[in-house]
Predict the 3D structure of the following.
Amino acid sequence: MLDVLYEWFWWDRIWLPGNLTWTDLEDKEGRVYAKASHLYVVVPYAFAFLFVRHIFERWVATPLAARAGIESRVNLKPDDNAVLKLYYATRSRNPAQADLDGLSKKSCLSVRQVERWFRRRRAQDRPGVLKKFTEASWRFTFYLASSVGGLLALYDKEWFSDTRHVWTAFPKQSLLDSQYWYYILEMSFYVSLLFSVFSDVKRKDFKEQMVHHAATLVLLSFSWCVNYIRVGTLVLLVHDASDVLLESAKLLNYAKMEKSCQLVFVLFALVFIITRLVIFPFWLIHCTWVYPLHHYTAFFGYYFFNAMLLLLLGLHVFWALLILAMVRKFIFGTLTRDERSDHEDDEEEESCLTDDDVVAKNNNGCLDCLASDNVSHYKTVH
């Protein structure tokens, strides 16, 4: 049964044009092609990324945060109360008013003391600015390195300036060393993001990010196996360009450099719109939708690849609307919170309240959740 499913899944009529078979993608005549077996190395490389990230965040990002005046937040611990701890763990982190009255009686505390207990307990579970800064530093470093590396790998290729050459002599396009490492490292990074997604700072667009990462890995894997590597590297480069600016804006925000943060964020918005909503659909999707038909008739893999690209385009539109909403608030001075931030962000202010519940509210804009992992971190063939 499994053998039948395996043969059906890899049936060349599904993934390749009608005049091609998998034998056309075997190494011969001095040409080397990408193989599905190459992707096994992605998993150990992803764990290597997690290890390097741990070292980087501890020994590089944390000292940088200290120089920027960012320190680990010290939250007031709630008193040990078995009744409230049980309710928090099994029922809700935000008890309703009716439940507060009942908890007050069971715990022998006033309603106000119960509210304060839950506020402090929630504060313990929320990531502080230091954690957000170190995460953003790691992503900024990777995106910067991948953008520079991708540009160096592609700038002198004929398909970089004229996408019609993406399909020249397809599929007889030998795999270059630069393409191999560009793909493998990008895929390993995305797999590492999936491994760490539940320990990283969680955003309100968590589901969209998961869909984005999954679509990215599917597209990268598919384009690797069927030798769509030229267009794949172009899409990677286009997506990485805006992510560098996004993480820069977030770092400036955490360092309380508000004016610089807003300037970089507006620049990021411009680059995002140009790369994700102009170059991506009108150059790259056009390249995968129109030019292949000049060489072969449409087939399932052709529709599958373009459908996944359109899914990513839909996510780009979703994020673009949020970005433009923030830019509008920057311009008119009405931004009070990140459009993509979790509702728990409001509680972070509450965690700073004193026992007298006196606090100076900060209405500065917050960019900490924009991305992505992307408006993420967004990476994809992408």
Remarks:
- The two ends are 33 Å apart (CA to CA).
- The mean pLDDT is 83.
